[in-house]
């Protein structure tokens, strides 16, 4: 990299990355081309957000994200050479150094440069954390008007093939293919079915269906990632008085006849879905249940009320 001018726009102004125990210049945060994780997808990561709350900048559900990172690493026998408390403090200090009030956080651990071959046991584990400003993943307009999505021809792998409870780099090629197909055909995002043909999730989001005032979302047995924002939405919806069926089996056809649909995720937050395969969902606009949950979600992020105080880790 010759300089900041070559950076993607989203990384403009980012000065520092934490890498293997040190704060390094953005341009120096590099890895070898023969890194094991680059060739075989042997890495684990998280996507986390820090919000500018009424009480100051705070990371949302940080402890849960950090625990999932270490749980994912355990599945792939990746021994992260830092304690959780060390990664937590490094992340908080990185946000302070970058002077960010809100940001996206990407911790990653992967098998590094060592002998090539399927068995990574002789490769060192490398760890890094990056932070940068990032707005709405699917666009600010999408939060109000909703997105047009398509059912992907690519199926979500079963947990018996690749563990779906682990957030691993290599497994996301499945999501990449689904997203490329959808966006290449003029849609904003995809919905992926599992091997049984039931609804699993979006490439980077969980999905919720509203019917007759009740909320349904695919269960863990449907080969989904156990989304942390998904669980937050379930908690908020139940606190608002909604009945939530969180172990639902949803068919493709049920999507077309839903009253409302919406995505949830760290990146997507709470984003309405206005059409699936060109079939209008409900009135083709953000529905009342989605609107109430989305409003409550962002109110909690803005206000950090005492009721949800344990959801926030302050910078």
UniProtKB/TrEMBL annotation:
**Broadest EC class assigned to this enzyme:** transferase
Pathway per the UniProt entry: Amino-acid biosynthesis; L-valine biosynthesis; L-valine from pyruvate: step 4/4; Amino-acid biosynthesis; L-isoleucine biosynthesis; L-isoleucine from 2-oxobutanoate: step 4/4; Amino-acid biosynthesis; L-leucine biosynthesis; L-leucine from 3-methyl-2-oxobutanoate: step 4/4
Q: Which GO terms describe its biological process?
A: isoleucine biosynthetic process; L-leucine biosynthetic process; L-valine biosynthetic process
In terms of CDD domains, this protein maps to:
BCAT_beta_family (cd01557)
E.C. designation(s): 2.6.1.42
> Mind listing the GO molecular function terms for this protein?
L-isoleucine-2-oxoglutarate transaminase activity; L-leucine-2-oxoglutarate transaminase activity; L-valine-2-oxoglutarate transaminase activity
User: What UniProt keywords apply to this chain's record, in alphabetical order?
Assistant: Amino-acid biosynthesis, Aminotransferase, Branched-chain amino acid biosynthesis, Pyridoxal phosphate, Transferase
Catalytic activity of the protein? L-valine + 2-oxoglutarate = 3-methyl-2-oxobutanoate + L-glutamate; L-leucine + 2-oxoglutarate = 4-methyl-2-oxopentanoate + L-glutamate; L-isoleucine + 2-oxoglutarate = (S)-3-methyl-2-oxopentanoate + L-glutamate
Task: Name the cofactor(s) required for activity, per the record.
Answer: pyridoxal 5'-phosphate
InterPro entries given in the database record: Aminotrans_IV (IPR001544), Aminotransferase-like (IPR036038), B_amino_transI (IPR005785), BCAT-like_C (IPR043132), BCAT-like_N (IPR043131), BCAT_family (IPR033939), Class-IV_PLP-Dep_Aminotrnsfr (IPR050571)
Which Gene3D superfamilies has this protein been placed in? 3.30.470.10, D-amino Acid Aminotransferase, subunit A, domain 2
Q: Which PANTHER family match?
A: AMINO-ACID AMINOTRANSFERASE, AMINODEOXYCHORISMATE LYASE
- Family recorded in the similarity comment: Belongs to the class-IV pyridoxal-phosphate-dependent aminotransferase family.
Q: What does this protein do?
A: Acts on leucine, isoleucine and valine.
> NCBIfam families given for it?
ilvE_I, PRK06606.1
Q: What is this protein called?
A: Branched-chain-amino-acid aminotransferase
From which organism does this entry originate? Halomicrobium zhouii
The encoding gene: ilvE
């Amino acid at each position: 990299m010759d300089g900041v001018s070559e950076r993607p726009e989203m990384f403009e102004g980012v000065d520092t990355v934490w890498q293997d125990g040190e704060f390094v210049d953005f341009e120096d945060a590099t890895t070898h081309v023969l890194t094991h994780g680059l060739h075989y997808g042997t890495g684990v990561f998280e996507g986390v957000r820090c919000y500018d709350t009424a009480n100051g900048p705070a990371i949302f559900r940080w402890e849960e994200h950090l625990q999932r990172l270490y749980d994912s690493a355990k599945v792939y026998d990746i021994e992260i050479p830092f304690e959780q408390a060390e990664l937590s403090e490094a992340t908080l200090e990185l946000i302070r150094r970058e002077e960010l009030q809100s940001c996206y956080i990407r911790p990653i651990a992967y098998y590094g440069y060592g002998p090539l071959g399927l068995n990574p046991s002789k490769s060192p584990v490398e760890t890094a954390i990056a932070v940068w400003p990032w707005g709405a993943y699917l666009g600010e307009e999408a939060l109000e008007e909703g997105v047009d999505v398509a059912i992907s021809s690519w199926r979500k792998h079963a947990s018996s093939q690749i563990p779906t409870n682990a957030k691993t780099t290599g497994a996301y090629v499945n999501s990449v293919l689904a997203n490329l197909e959808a966006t290449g055909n003029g849609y904003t995002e995809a919905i992926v079915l599992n091997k049984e043909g039931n609804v699993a999730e979006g490439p980077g989001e969980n999905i919720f269906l509203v019917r007759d005032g009740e909320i349904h979302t695919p269960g863990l047995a449907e080969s989904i990632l156990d989304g942390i924002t998904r669980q937050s939405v379930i908690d908020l919806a139940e606190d608002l008085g909604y009945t939530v069926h969180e172990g639902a089996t949803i068919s493709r056809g049920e999507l077309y006849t839903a009253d409302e649909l919406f995505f949830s995720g760290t990146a997507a937050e709470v984003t309405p879905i206005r059409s699936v395969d060109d079939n209008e969902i409900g009135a083709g606009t953000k529905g009342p249940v989605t609107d109430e949950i989305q409003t409550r979600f962002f109110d909690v992020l803005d206000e950090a009320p005492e009721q949800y105080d344990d959801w926030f880790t302050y910078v």
